[in-house]
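can u do me a favor
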């Protein structure tokens, strides 16, 4: 039987892609991807430049803040005094004139003088406790006096315990003080001269988070924003003591978003540079408390003399509360022009 012809094996067609030589040509990125990379590179460059610019601006602000703050904090005003009244046996001074002089110096009448800044009179004897004062020839501590008068003259002076004194000087009245650099009137108080009740009242009324915030109170800002939006008017603020200090030292009264941002930046930098004690002491000496004609009354030292005619160390709680009340609006709460309004705010502060 003859064998049939063997059919040749059918060649299989290679599957698509098989058997082809791999291409060495790289696939080009799409236009969208190229645009994304371009934006990413330029965005990174712009962001880096922005960070450098902000850092440079903050460095500039830091230098400006530090130099200004240090300069104003440590500069002391020039003080101008009148001639002191001298008391000695034979001096031509009546008891009425002596009382008038003590009153002009802010001494208060009491039943029996036993504290600095007080006086009392019985018959022809005037008792007073003189305040400490640094004279040109030395410092004098507080000095009790008993002064006897007769026919318009001083006849005897003793130290309140019977010891005779040849002479005694009342502290001279201060007729002015100013910073030569910027012509402002100020009575500088050191932390030791500031009654502890004053910073405690300031924190209770103006800035409850003063001891812990970084210069601004975020919760206070949000709360004030909510109240103002709810009422439709700017009825509540949220400025910390540090922000108030910044406005007084560096900024104008302009109301704008840019100024507010600058105020926040200044406040944060101040908090980073100085201690809370430094900031409180500067606030006590800087804050505006009213106007005496053309003279601005800055600081609680001068405010105490202006409103009560006596040193701040002799103020009572109700008097300190009145000074703190004035901060919110020196014209609106002026005790001389609006006594009832100022008294109501003082009473609210005493109740805090």
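np, heres the sequence
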């Amino acid at each position: 039987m003859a064998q049939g012809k063997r059919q040749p094996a059918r060649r299989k067609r290679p599957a698509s892609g098989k058997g082809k030589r791999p291409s060495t040509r790289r696939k080009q990125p799409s236009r969208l991807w190229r645009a994304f990379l371009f934006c990413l590179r330029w965005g990174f460059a712009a962001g880096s430049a922005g960070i450098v610019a902000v850092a440079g601006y903050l460095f500039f602000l830091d230098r400006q803040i530090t130099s200004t703050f240090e300069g104003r904090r440590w500069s002391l005003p020039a003080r101008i005094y009148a001639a002191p009244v001298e008391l000695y046996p034979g001096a031509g001074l009546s008891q009425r004139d002596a009382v008038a002089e003590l009153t002009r110096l802010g001494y208060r009448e009491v039943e029996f003088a036993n504290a600095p800044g007080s006086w009392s009179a019985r018959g022809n004897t005037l008792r007073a406790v003189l305040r400490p004062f640094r004279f040109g020839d030395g410092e004098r501590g507080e000095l009790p006096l008993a002064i006897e008068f007769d026919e318009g003259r001083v006849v005897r002076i003793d130290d309140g315990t019977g010891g005779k004194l040849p002479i005694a000087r009342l502290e001279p009245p201060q007729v002015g003080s100013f910073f030569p650099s910027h012509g402002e009137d100020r009575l500088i108080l050191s932390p030791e001269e500031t009654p502890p009740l004053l910073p405690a009242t300031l924190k209770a009324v103006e800035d409850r988070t003063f001891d812990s915030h970084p210069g601004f109170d975020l919760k206070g800002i949000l709360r004030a924003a909510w109240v103002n939006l709810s009422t439709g008017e700017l009825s509540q603020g949220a400025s910390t003591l540090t922000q108030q200090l910044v406005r007084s030292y560096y900024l104008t009264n302009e109301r704008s978003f840019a100024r507010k941002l600058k105020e926040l930046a200044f406040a944060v930098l101040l908090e980073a540079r100085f201690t809370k004690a430094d900031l409180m002491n500067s606030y006590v000496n800087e804050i505006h408390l009213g106007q005496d004609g053309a003279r601005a009354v800055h600081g609680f030292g001068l405010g105490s003399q202006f409103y009560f005619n006596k040193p701040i160390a002799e103020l009572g709680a109700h008097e300190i509360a009145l000074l703190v009340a004035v901060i919110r609006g020196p014209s609106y709460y002026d005790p001389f022009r609006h006594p009832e309004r100022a008294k109501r705010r003082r009473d609210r502060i005493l109740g805090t």
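The mean pLDDT is 83. hope that helps!!
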